[in-house]
Amino acid sequence: MSGATCHSASPPSVGSGDRRTLVLAGNPNVGKSVVFGLLTGTYVEVSNFPGTTVEITRGRHGGYDVLDTPGVYGVGSLNEEEAVARDVILTADVIVNVVDAVHLQRDLFLTLQLADLGLPMVVALNMVDEARAQGVGVDRDLLEDLLGVPVVEMVAVDGAGLDALLQRLDEARPGHADLLLEDELFDAALPGGCRADALLVLEGDTTISERHGVAPGSQRDEIYARRRVRVDDIVGHVVTDTDDGLSLAARISRLMLEPLTGFPLLAGLLVATYVVLGQWIAGGVVGVTEETIMLGHWEPFIRGVVGGLMEQGSALYTFLAGEFGVLTMTPTYLLGVILPLVVGFYLLMALLEDSGYLPRIAALADRGLTALGLNGRAIIPLILGLGCVTMGTLTTRILGSKRERFIATALMAVAVPCSAQIAVIAALMARVGGGYAAAYFGLLIAIFVALGTVLNRVVPGVSTSLLIDLPPLRVPRLKNVLRKTTTKAWGFMREVALFFLAGTTLISLLDITGALSWIQRAAAPLTVSWLRLPAEAATAFVMGFVRRDFGAAGFFTMDLSAPQLLVAMVTITLFVPCAASMMVVLKERGWRYLIGLFAGSVGLAFLIGGLLTRALGVLV
Amino acid sequence: MNRGHGRATERGQGQGRGQGQGRGQRRRGWFGAHGGSEADGTLLGILPGEECVIGVISDDCARAQAVRFGIGNGAHVSCVTKLPGGPVVLRSGRQEIAVGRGLASRITVSAPGVQAAGQA
Q1: What is the pTM of this model?
Q2: Whole-angstrom distance, CA of residue A519 vs CA of residue A527
Q3: Structural domains of chain A, count
């Protein structure tokens, strides 16, 4: 038997000197990551969970290895992300189940499932301050008695309750389970297996059943229904809700979802985003960082220093300070052009995430996305894709069917530019005026919709419907937002920097060896005749194989007319996704999909680029 | 238990019919996508401000997730709002859930009062 280990069946390893595994589990948006931060301090490492591409955050606390899991409403395999959380939970020696005191009716379902699984746990009753403010009282002592495990009150964002949690970790034990789940039932479902796996088999979990070579059970409905009754019973006993009126947050939430106010509010957000990211940052801030600082001061300074050390035109000079030099172009694009917009984007993402608005956008976008074979939930990977396509592709795991993951991955790889690319393109488009920038985004949206509509027709299978929990609206905490922004922007910039360096090295090598001019001649029928661009455009497309934003940057030094620039930007955007996201596509979707995507995106890029050239030739 | 719920659902559909057709016609005017019969007795037929009791959810995954959210079979929910051609937003306790249109048409519901009679 392979797969999940059964710690509940093995003797406890207390005092043996071995490190124990502490797993944080809970519903989405209950503050798991904040508790994780409290437990592990700043030292965290993001690593792949064995056998998957899923990133799991790990850290240490005393004798514990601490693992964070994706937020789930239950242990099972309703989607890929849930399957990952399940496998991490099954490796736990101790579980800290973080629950939101305001939403026990929802959160305790997972708690009782963990109890039924027989896993030792402590419950962190988080956000008790918010509950109090909303008139929700929770009887902690009674909850502890009814669950049969330690319950600790916390306000994790303030660090309150951490000491109590740490003190009571040793008391972690399996909670009171469903009395009708008897040992004979488990033995029949999974002879000789452990309780946790046997319960999941009974609940019809296909992956766990497959791992053990047994048929999945058919008792999920009965077990779930009894668990729901127990949850409602516990909530009825421990929760006192004194406030019947709608809070301000609930009233705003209503406005966000009412058709007459919800869509205008969303439109307002989009306009605000455009003003902040598109005009203030891509225009104002980048104008200073790129032109004044990097081009005005940094590059001349470096050329002077490098030129003083070696002959201009030598191979090393070209590599260091030439057109694509690692000390000139690389830092200019990384720090001057890309960094401001990436930081701005992740700041916005963190605000959207922490405020709870994202699931409401999913509800508003549901109707539109249904026409593309997706449901509203897909807005989450798609928006993340605007930050980083690699990240967006990983997040397709939250989608309910293979068909939806197929379509969303293709849409992102082809028609969604990442923040770095938008930064470079915005900087280039600033030269030719707003009309062309609008045409660029309009075309991309049209291609996005057309491609989605076609894929919805041709991709086999059935897409799932939206079923999404709308968490309460909250005012984001500045500290959290800044922490998230810096972590994510830093991770993204590191990846970009790595590929930029690899890319500039490659281009410089090709340039020095003369291979670049050969490629330019060979690609001339495509670049010069078909797209009517200068022959040097081939260089940009070679760069585009490394990263699309890098490819777009390749057009910087070319003297292009406005229509040529539009053609170049549309073509390079539709061109192959960056090397990093292709690796993720390979892992998540397989090599056949990758080959199809590669051929499809290159074909589509040149087809649309050429047609656009001709259309512009007629129009302009 | 199951039989009880089945009976309640049938009765709910029967009693709600006259009212339901009127609703269906209004909806035809708004969306033009379907007739009243599809919405009758399903979550799609519920109007903002109305309350109902969830009956049968035919999708396997959705049924499991709905029980976790507390809007499974027998749950008492109210409709917060409906987006044109889009999801139905439900509230159960302090929990708000958006249910896509396709799924909503496959969830049967009954009026709260009728459910109580069925259980008694």
Answers
A1: 0.84
A2: 11
A3: 2
